[in-house]
Amino acid sequence: MAYRHLFGPVPSRRLGTSLGIDLVPQKTCAFNCVYCECGRTTDHTCERREYVPTERVIAELDDFLARAPDLDYVTFAGSGEPTLHSGIGEVIAFLKGRYPRYRVAVLTGSALLTNPEVRAALMPADLVVPSLDAVSEEVFLELNRPCPGLTAGRVLEGIVTFAREFPGEIWLEVFIVPGINDAEEELLRLKDAVAAISPDRVQVNTLDRPGTDIRVRPASRPALERIASMLGGNAEVIGAARTGQVMPPEIGEAGEIILATIRRRPCTPGDLTALLRIRPTEVAKHLRVLEAGGLVERVREKRGVFYRAI
């Protein structure tokens, strides 16, 4: 079976070896964050609907997981906001019913957590990782660039309500962009928000790959550690991904798989080697072909040369 809505397994900086589920077309989201590694939002919306066929997603998961791969998580992430898909609850219920050995994680920008239907859909998951990058409206608008009508207050309200109801783990992500949300006043507001949410963990993050806005640069490690200390005792700075034995690609040509991976997020050649278990020489060969064909371009960042889709 060709997998259209699954990616990986990949070594995640937070979740170990993770099989990704992509429920929306690229790039469908309630936000257009300046730092997003998936690129600029092209479908800027808060509308929930069945963006891709739910039955197809379930069939792909059933086919892949029937081989009993060694995974730390099955994760809803990918090209946009997964809770925009109206069938996410059905997919989670399938996973927990048919393959209970696998932990299910949902990464969300938190835009829809005020919706009771969304909160109910996420209840069977093991882990939800909501994002909260700003509390003041002006910083929220500059950093997250939400769809019309969405406010920082509503986002915070949704996370607090969800945290009270959810029986699983909540790891709150705070993404730091120097010069936008790292001022003392905003950090104090975030500290109060963290106290109201009371998550199991607070994960302080910064740019690891090229973002939407080329002016955005990563925060330094000392700055992140200072912010984590300020936000509370359960806050931590997200480290590098741990690599390990992951499944080699079995569907399609290596070049197609590399391009599909880069379309979801920029990667270094080393990232691709670790993610896909393809020899470095093979990765380099395919990248040259993709670059010559005008499908990818190079971008130099702090961590090295990244390739991103054009």
TrEMBL record:
Supply the InterPro entries for this chain: Aldolase_TIM, ArsR-like_HTH, GTPase_Obg, rSAM, rSAM_sf, WH-like_DNA-bd_sf, WH_DNA-bd_sf
The alphabetized UniProt keywords are: 4Fe-4S, Iron, Iron-sulfur, Metal-binding, S-adenosyl-L-methionine
Recorded hits in PROSITE patterns, A to Z, give:
RADICAL_SAM
The cofactor(s) it depends on are:
[4Fe-4S] cluster
> Where does the secretion signal sit in this chain?
none
The keyword Lipid biosynthesis appears for this protein: no
What is a GO molecular function of this protein?
Answer: 4 iron, 4 sulfur cluster binding
UniProt domain Radical SAM core: residue ranges: 15-250
Q: What is this protein called?
A: Radical SAM protein
Give the species: Methanoculleus oceani
